[in-house]
């Protein structure tokens, strides 16, 4: 039996991001602002093929594109 986040069509990382955002929004003003500042990240990656670096992409953009491609294939 698949997990509820899988049944909803989410990856585990996306599920964690949604849950973390819900928790941060439920905090009082002071702790919420501190938690939101810790949330700001800029992750990038690049695929390497034949010893050469490919295009550098932002992780959030690639995740959005991957989710859209996955939903289209269903």
TrEMBL record:
List the SUPFAM superfamilies.
Answer: Epsilon subunit of mitochondrial F1F0-ATP synthase
InterPro entries the record matches:
ATP_synth_F1_esu_mt (IPR006721), ATP_synth_F1_esu_sf_mt (IPR036742)
- Tell me what this protein is called: Mitochondrial ATP synthase epsilon chain domain-containing protein
Q: Which GO terms describe its molecular function?
A: proton-transporting ATP synthase activity, rotational mechanism
Q: What highest taxon heads this organism's lineage?
A: Eukaryota
Family, per entry: Belongs to the eukaryotic ATPase epsilon family.
- Read off the Gene3D superfamilies from this record: ATP synthase, F1 complex, epsilon subunit superfamily, mitochondrial
Q: Which GO terms describe its biological process?
A: proton motive force-driven mitochondrial ATP synthesis
Quote a single Gene Ontology cellular component term: proton-transporting ATP synthase complex
């Amino acid at each position: 039996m698949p997990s509820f986040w899988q049944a909803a069509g989410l990856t585990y990382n996306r599920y964690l991001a949604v849950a973390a955002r819900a928790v941060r929004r439920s905090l009082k003003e002071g702790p919420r602002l501190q938690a939101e500042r810790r949330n700001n990240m800029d992750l990038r990656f690049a695929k390497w093929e034949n010893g050469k670096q490919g295009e550098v992409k932002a992780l959030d953009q690639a995740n959005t594109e991957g989710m859209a491609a996955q939903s289209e294939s269903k």
